[in-house]
Amino acid sequence: MHDILLSALQHYAVCPRQCALIHMEQIWTENEHTAAGRLLHESVHSGETRLRDGVRIVTDLELHSARLGLRGKSDAVELHRDGGGWRPYPVEYKKGSPHGDCLADSIQLCGQALCLEEMFATSIPEGALFYGTPHRRTVVRFSPELREKTERTVAAVREMLASARLPCAQKSAVCSSCSLAACCMPGSPPAACPVRRLLFPSIWTNCVRKRDETLSEYLVRHHAGYLALQTGGMCGAAP
Predict the structure, then answer these.
(1) 66 pLDDT more than 60
(2) 160 with 20: CB under 8 angstroms?
(3) Residues 73-124: pLDDT tens digits?
(4) Which of 86, 115, 121, 151 allows an S-S link to 65, with CB 3.0 to 4.6 Å?
(5) 176: which residues sit within 8 A by CB, 6+ positions away?
(6) In Å, what is the CA distance from 122 to each residue of 34, 35, 119, 238?
(7) Spatial strand order in the sheet of 136-141
(8) What is residue 42's predicted lDDT score, i.e. its pLDDT?
(9) Residues 6 or more apart from 174 whose CB is under 8 A from it?
(10) Which carries the bigger pLDDT value, residue 23 or residue 154?
(11) What is the mean pLDDT of residues 25-42?
(12) Alpha helices per DSSP H over 29-126
């Protein structure tokens, strides 16, 4: 079982197609929103351990869950004294301000907590999302419902990656701020999207040049197949 990146949980909860473009097709572009988020994370990920008011704070901690097949790095994990040991408290940093119930961010944070629970053999009741604009924390309780949603998201991401199928585009409010909008939405100029071969080459078997096919015929067919994939025309097609 291949490990899934913790960031994929948040991407999938926001938009399954965005998750597939990033984690399946390895496509990534930046805009002002992603650049601001990257700078915020770089300021946090020092890899240092420090002590503040009796709390040990570890940044850039490697996280892993063998049970769920999850891995990634934390922004910060606070270690609070708990008897003779330490109780982890994950903190995820996000740029901007919280929107709605912060479900996608909460699922990512809960995924970190599930990793930490397995690593430390303990239970973690809550963590926090730190948003840059209000510059304050939003406490997230790891309820049974959130844990279930998180594990369902892990299963959904794994199924999507295993199927090698690109989910169809569905326009929503998040599209306007998505850095991959030009690569994703039907009707966008295809040239705006970098051409990348999928990590799952079985999808491209229909684009292998046939023995009796001229080069011009192959290029026309390959280009048509690529455009269909980018605009959702091949959504759900068997690999």
Answers:
(1) yes
(2) yes
(3) 999 999 998 888 889 999 999 877 777 779 999 999 999 999 999 999 999 9
(4) 115
(5) none
(6) 34, 35, 8, 42
(7) 49-52, 55-59, 76-82, 85-94, 126-131, 136-141
(8) 62
(9) 14, 15
(10) 154
(11) 66
(12) 32-44, 103-120
Q: What is the pTM of this model?
A: 0.72
**Comma-separated ranges of CATH 3.90.320.10 domains in the chain:** 4-163
> Cβ-count burial of 107 within 10 angstroms (0-12 exposed, 13-18 middle, 19+ buried)?
buried
Q: Which of 146, 76, 60 is nearest to 111 (CA)?
A: 146
Q: Which residues of 59-89 are buried (b: 16+ CB within 10 A; e: fewer)?
A: bbbebbbeebebbbbbbbbbbeeeeeebbbb
pLDDT for the residue numbered 214:
54
> Which CATH code, of 1.25.10.10, 2.60.40.3410, 1.10.260.40, 3.90.320.10, is assigned to 4-163?
3.90.320.10
